Amino acid sequence: MSTAQEHPESPTFSERLKTGTWQAHGAAEAHGFSQALLSGSLPREGYVDLVAQHHFVYVALEEVAQALADHPVGGAVHFPELRRVPALERDLAFLLGPDWRDAVVPLPATRAYAERIRWTAEWPAGFVAHHYTRYLGDLSGGQFIRRVVQRAYGLDDGSGLEFYVFDRIGSLPRFKNGYRAALDALDLDEDEQHRAVEEARLAYRFNSEMLADLDRSHTSSRTP
After folding, report:
1. With 0-12 CB in 10 A as exposed, 13-18 as middle and 19+ as buried, what is 209?
2. Residue 201 in contact with residue 33, Cβ under 8 Å?
């Protein structure tokens, strides 16, 4: 199999993912729901609903991650220290109480998003694309969101925002560099890399549709 690593002038897989999703990433950040969250004007209920939708997405991601843990492609991004589901469950228990499972329902876009992620169990490179879009975002912009959320909702002791806390990975820049190196070491030819980049773009679209569903649910209660 001919790989990009055999042609030094070719972009690496991580570079392709970054440049190929840059526009989609910007569109997600410009979404009305995202802007309300980042400005601190989103009602607390909107934040709680976002946490709930994230739970459905990350349950799917981490189920597939576990299923592909020994696969040469899917297993390359199997970092147990990234797991978010336990943190999300603690956040929901704090925000909604011990019966939180009875209070959360996936929105239609969230359900479709999770189904797509589970489908990639049959296509590990596609799973890697979804993994990249979520966890690299959490390790980057998610850290800013953490500070905004803490101020906006008075979560001064850290309860309710554990999703954004990565205390098992050590140095954040070093971990991100290692993650990108793992992507670049994958034995994927250029066609498969381009296909995975398209799947990463699709992941951003699913995320934007989820945000749109949330936006429709909370626009009327948003602070002007």
Report:
1. middle
2. no
Query: What is the token pair recorded at 1?
Result: 């199999």
Rounded Cα gap, residues 142 and 164, in angstroms: 6
| Nearest partner of 177 among 2, 53, 12, judged by Cα | 12
Answer whether 207's CB lies under 8 Å from 27's CB.
no
Burial class of residue 5 (count of CB atoms within 10 Å of its CB; 0-12, 13-18, 19+): middle
Task: Give buried/exposed letters for 89-124 (b at 16+ CB in 10 A, else e).
Answer: bebbebbbeeebeeeeebbebbbebbebbbebbebb
9-58: pLDDT as tens digits? 789 999 999 999 988 766 666 668 888 998 989 999 999 999 999 999 99
Q: Which residue has the tokens 């592909």?
A: 68
Note if the pTM is more than 0.85: yes
Report whether 182 contacts 116 (CB < 8 A).
no
Q: In angstroms, rounded to a whole number, what is the distance separating the alpha carbons of residues 72 and 186?
A: 8
- In angstroms, the Cα distances linking 206 to 24, 27, 171, 177, 210 are 11, 12, 30, 26, 6
What digits encode the pLDDT tens for the residues 130-145?
A: 999 999 989 988 888 9
Instruction: Let me know if domain 10-219 sits in CATH 3.30.1390.20.
Output: no
